[in-house]
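Each field is set out as follows.
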Amino acid sequence: MAEQPAPAVSHQKLNRTGLTDEEAKAFHAMFQRGGQIFFAICLIAHFILWSWMPWYPGPTGG
């Protein structure tokens, strides 16, 4: 009996999204990094805006 050739595509377990566990972890890491960068930009923008024009009145009322 002749041997069966190995399949060209490996059959990895896929999640509901169609990604493997490694791909899902890589995507999650990129998603987290994007959120951290967005948060840092927001903090910097708020600090710059606050130093230009504070939105809470100071002790002198204005």
